[in-house]
Amino acid sequence: MEYNFKEIEKRWQKYWKKHNIFYVKENEKKKKFYILNMFPYPSGEGLHVGHCLGYIASDIYARYKRVEGYNVLNPMGFDSFGLPAEQYAIQTGNHPSDTTLKNSQKYQIQMNKIGISFDWNRKLYTSSPNYYHWTQWMFIQIFNSWYDKNCKKAKPIEILVEEFNKNGNFFVNASTSYKKKFNSKEWNDFNSFEKETILLDYRLAFLCKNIVNWCPDLGTVLANDEIKNGKSQRGGYPVYKKNMLQWHIRISAYAERLIKGLNLVECSQSLKRLQINWIGKSIKFFVTLNVVYNNEKIKKIKFFLFCPEMIFGVTFVILSPDHPIVNEISVDSHKKNVSKYLKNNSFFKEEEEKVSGVFTGNYIFHPFLKKKIPIYISNSFFVKNDIIKSIVGIPGHEKKSNNFAKKFRLEIIKVYKKNINNNEICTNSDLLNGLNLKEARKKITKILIEKNIGEENTYYKIRDAIFSRQRYWGEPIPIYFKKKIPRTIPVNKLPIILPKVNNYHPKNGKSSLTRVKNWAWDEKNMKIVSNTLIDHKNIFPMEINTMPSWAGSSWYFLRYMDVHNHQFFLDKKKENYWKNVDLYIGGSEHSTGHLIYARFWHKFLKDRGWITTEEPFKKILNQGMILSYSASIIKIIGENTFISYGLLKKSINKNISFQEIYVDLSLIKGNNELDIKKFKKNKPEFCTFNFLLEKGIFICKRKLEKMSKSKLNVINPDKICDKYGSDVFRIYEMFLGPITQSKPWNDEKIKGMKNFIKKLWSLFHKENNFQISEINPTLKELQILHSTIKEVKNKINSFSLNTSISSLMVFVNKLIALRCNKRKILEPMVQLMAPFSPHIAEELWNKLGKKKSIINYPIPIVNSKYLINKITYPIMFNGKLKFLEQFDSNISTKELKNKILNHSKTKFLLKDKIIKKLIIVPKKIINILI
RNA sequence: ACCCAGAUGGCGAAAUUGGUAUACGCGCUGGAUUCAAAAUCCAGUGAUUACAUCAUGCGGGUUCGAAUCCCGCUCUGGGUACCA
């Protein structure tokens, strides 16, 4: 009988759906196992083979855990807020929710098609009001919380207010940007605006200014991702830095716990290191120095002093262009220059050598040299997005400072030199002279701290996360503004539904919610009303920014536990059963961003008592990325011209700048040639553009990179499933290599998997009929079976799925060689195969006469009676293999030594040479040194 | 630039974590079957000047023994905070 995968696979997929095979509910009698997959964003391209890698791997594990007796939660949903759907809406006018729904349905069909055992009953969308109700609710809780450093946890803001009423902020040790001290009387004397402003500095969600990429031509803020060489990727328009008032989440409060919590997570060391480096804990030294021409606002400035022992070498200081005081620090005669510089240098320079800067006309006072030190503004000293915005220049010993000092003719002082013993000692440093650098650092930091000039701060690189998005397609932030003070919408009025708009374009850097006519909050009647009614007494404007997509994706794994609950985001009982995720499989590209946010969010919810676990994921497995060749074409910026890739090098010096535009793989002919006709049809906006050809054709640039919809290099699994079947596709994806490794996609080798499935099928069939033998197996057959069971189980447990399949192949090959079709061997074999190729396994299981799905039968266990107890030792002479010999696995070393020395082959090889040393490593090797 | 990975036959890869380098699969070569092809089956397949020697990106080192550990490079991929 031919193996007709089309019919068989469809039939079993229908069966699973009809009988709700993967439906799961809490069951106290069974141990739980919670498997979580990477949360997909449903793009129009559909699922690609890179996503499938993780889904198949986790599905194999889920199916394996079920037959091991666990109650397995294996849910799936959609991270459905995000930029691409909004961009599509801007271009086409289609509502993002329609696009998203359509796309996610496509995903769901694709996932079912490859036989993934999701419990669709628990499906969720971050963009559905039923879900974002709770995202909004959580935002309000974050807003109404502060972080108590003494207890190392978040607490309700009321507790803080109570404390302010009692003692002011004298005994409060909080994560805050608020620096001043006040007592209870002062607190009570503040008016409500002052009080709220202070509280905002303590809240875990707070408003403050931050720099964004502003593109006036597009009227919007851009992600770094959307900018290439200082120009917007769409259209090539200039981009500027702009300071905007934005919502932030005080994630830095959790920096220490995010580091410590990693001890509770089982994952690769490299992932931990990535996270630790991202959080970036370090102890840094700062000095606060007096400003010479000071004003009311600015009397002192704090500088990062990277080498305190070199303080005598400081001859200038530098502020970053985005330092909050750059506009006020300069003296009148220099203001023009400064603003000119700021205008032209809003971007941080990538190149290392060039330095630029502008003198502010102002100085700080050097506390030891007792002289004026000039203050410059420069973008050359700061890494993009660095939290440190002011540093000192030590041109004697630091390269960039040196270049800077030379350019601006500033003094250069050497403050250490080598002495006769070649040790570095301080010089030109007054009280530090003669000390080595280590001693000098110790001495000077002590003095600086005593003098109240210096301080040692624990510094974390991790920044408070910007939470505002000037976009339409995201959760509305449940806030209204009462006399500029943000107030939360009452939680019983949630969710605040994202209103419909006609035009999705952002307007003047604001989301299109700014066009909504009814977007004001009536405080008395607690409802949304028309903007025309705003009177700032009872009716107030609502927040028009929306949340970032990481808000919804930071807690979805909790909602899966209780997805239909309309009373609360998660019932206590259910939380108590499922607790947290046992295994999370996700791409390594999420190692920092998403994982850190999710871990933070989880810790916050724990602090406030709604969940009980410190970490959301017990074990994290990073799947490697599937890479694919992208294709792009080169456009000349400012001209409506594309040039063939080969012509790029020739044009490079002609003062023209270029922009790369990704093109879909379907528009490429064999030899990297662009099908211009198809391209113009596909992208009508380029219809009138010129194409500069080389040798009559237009060549694209090809690059191997991450498979991603934004790079238009995705490969769809559907075609492969149609041609070879889902089981073959599943096995092939796993057989490609280790799950954690990234690899380029190539489907040439899929034939091997087709052969394997065919061979498996043929074991059960003779002359087109299903035929198996009821005879008892031989010892040899049982030995093969049980060693395979052991091997496959070990390999699944260590997620070596590619080698599990190898073992199964060896098994099948051996059975074919033995012509074994005995039920007692084949039944356990089908069970071993079932997690990998569930469709064919169900079919064979059914033919073997079983009445229920194979998922209901426990996986066979290893009988050690049938495991072979011998070890083949390689016998080497001077590290070179000479022969092999089998010995009992529990033989003593002494006996082994005897046997080997008296072995005829040893004697032959030795002849009359003397053994210098005999190395016996039990269960490994024997090495004879002569 | 910084942080994290990876590099093994013609190709995807394996190697019990320092102990027989190349399992398993693709491809290729030869044979069987066939009028022929496809499909299938059988055998072979790292290289070379073949009882040996050389081979795990490059150059050193540690060790009885290194793909695996250490030092210094090269190339490729991911991340760098508003793609998800």
Tag the structure with descriptive keywords.
Rossmann fold, alpha+beta, RNA-binding, 38 strands, 930 residues, 6-stranded mixed β-sheet, Isoleucyl-tRNA Synthetase, domain 2
Q: Can you give a write-up of this model?
A:
- The chain is an alpha+beta fold.
- It has 6 domains: 32-125 and 256-278 and 547-625 and 736-744, 3-Layer(aba) Sandwich (Rossmann fold); 281-460, Valyl/Leucyl/Isoleucyl-tRNA synthetase, editing domain (Isoleucyl-tRNA Synthetase, domain 2), CATH 3.90.740; 478-508 and 517-544, no CATH class; 626-706, no CATH class; 746-866, Isoleucyl-tRNA Synthetase, Domain 1; 870-929, Ubiquitin-like (UB roll) (Roll), CATH 3.10.20.
- It has 29 helices and 38 strands.
- Strands 27, 28, 29, 30, 31 and 32 form a 6-stranded mixed beta sheet that branches. A 4-stranded parallel beta sheet has the order 2-1-25-26, covered by helices on one side.
- The model has no long low-confidence stretch (mean pLDDT 91).
- The chain binds one RNA strand of 84 nucleotides through helix 10, strand 19, helix 18, strand 31 and strand 32.
Outline of the structure:
By secondary structure, the chain is an alpha+beta fold.
Question: What's the SSE blueprint?
Answer:
Elements: H1 5-18, E1 32-37, H2 49-67, E2 71-73, H3 83-92, H4 96-113, H5 129-143, E3 145-148, E4 153-156, H6 157-167, H7 184-189, H8 192-200, E5 205-215, E6 220-222, E7 227-228, E8 231-232, E9 240-249, H9 255-260, H10 269-279, E10 281-290, E11 300-304, E12 316-319, H11 326-329, H12 335-344, E13 358-365, E14 372-377, E15 390-393, H13 399-407, E16 416-418, E17 424-426, H14 437-450, E18 454-460, E19 465-466, E20 479-482, E21 485-488, E22 520-522, E23 527-529, E24 539-541, H15 549-552, H16 556-559, H17 572-578, E25 583-587, H18 593-607, E26 620-623, E27 626-636, E28 641-643, H19 648-651, E29 658-663, H20 676-682, E30 690-692, E31 701-706, H21 718-724, H22 726-735, E32 743-744, H23 751-763, E33 765-766, E34 769-770, H24 779-797, H25 801-818, H26 823-833, H27 838-847, E35 870-877, E36 880-888, H28 893-901, H29 904-910, E37 917-921, E38 925-929
The chain binds one RNA strand of 84 nucleotides through helix 10, strand 19, helix 18, strand 31 and strand 32.
